[in-house]
Amino acid sequence: FEEGDNIDRKASVEKSRDTHKFSINIKGKKENDMEKVNEKPNNEKQKNRIQKDYTGKGKNYVQIRRLMNEIIRENDEESSKKSILDSLKKALEEKGKKELENIILHIPENLSKEQYKKFKEIMEEYKEIDNSPYLKILKNKRDAAERQEIASYMKGFQARDREALSDLYQKLKEQDFEERNVNTYLENIRDKIYDLDEAAINRICPEPAEVAFNEGLRAYEEIRSGNFLPELKDNVLGMLEKRLEKIKMDECEQLVKKLSRDLIQITEGNPRIHFYEVRKINKGIEEDGEYQIIRKALSTYASGMEKYEYPIVICDSSLTGRGRGGFVLTPDHLFYNTLVEDGVMNVKDVRDVFAGSGLFGKGIYVDYKKAGKVKISDALSLHKTEMATFAEILNNFVYYLKEKPESRSISYLAEEKHLVKCCYRCGYEFKAGNICPKCGSKYNE
Length: 445
Prior knowledge:
By secondary structure, this protein is of the alpha+beta class. The protein has helices at 2-54, 61-73, 78-105, 113-124, 132-154, 162-174, 179-204, 213-225, 230-267, 278-282, 290-299, 384-403, 410-414; strands at 273-275, 313-316, 326-329, 333-337, 342-346, 350-356, 363-368, 372-377, 421-422, 429-430. Helix 2 (61-73) packs antiparallel against helix 3 and helix 6 (162-174) runs antiparallel to helix 7. The chain is elongated, with a radius of gyration of 52 Å.
């Protein structure tokens, strides 16, 4: 009996345990079912709330843009977000345009630069839509206000002369105005300065291409040191420079012709005596080593030549025959360099040129007003009689330079045609023909 009771009790416990387990399973299933039931209404509520938000109603531009960014960051499928984002994008554009139009209405007519910057910063925040038309309106309003500011600024100046106009020009450039607004005013001022400068330059030198040398040189220095617009100054100085250079080159050319004709019997074939062919050398046409000798002399002991000063003859007495020693004669100076001394003489102070000998040997000497007897060269590969003749002709030529006959005056050389001709050789004046009646020179064209 006891054994039977134990079996029944055991069966009863197991049954009770199974019943409890079933009860738990039923309860769990109900709870899960309840959660599913409750979940559906919650999802519907959220969907309705989101759909209401997605319309963009009641929101400004910034809020709609923020909502769009939140949706983009969500993990939902792209297909489900696209229609919503398209709807919000349309709402964003409409709201942005309305807000920009409202901003335009509040822009003052006398818009300052600081106000312009602030309005521009605000408008540039609307970067998801086309804000360019509104920015253009803003820019036009600022330009109109700034042009009015410039006009008011200029009324404070009574600029009539060049100095006042230049002062106004500089001060206007220093102001913080936009180039597109101030350039017209600057150009007008510059045009007035240009007219004043042009008139002043014309008073100094009416005809740069026809001016005589001394007058042209004076005009050149006055214009160079004057306060004129660079384009006007550079143009007229360039014209004057060409004119002065031409006159002096013409003079050099005629003087070389005269001296070379007088010395032709002595200097022909002499490697120590060189005449300066000004036009060839200035163009860089160097046919042989002769021009290297000339250039060496001009770049060493004769480097002090003035502007528009050209050499006539270069006599090389250097030991190597490369132009480092000897003398260079120009219309105004005599440069020399020997083993003993070097220097420069003014032609007008040369008393005499002669062949001689002395403590420093045979050669060409000069009686100079400021220093007495000065040796300027050795014998230049000339025989005694040739050297004497050479010195005599050179002395006569120096006197010719000192006397400055009409044939080598700058004004005479500047003329294209001569009614009264002056012989380049002897200075005799005549009218008919090209041959000098006195000395027979044929080089007076």
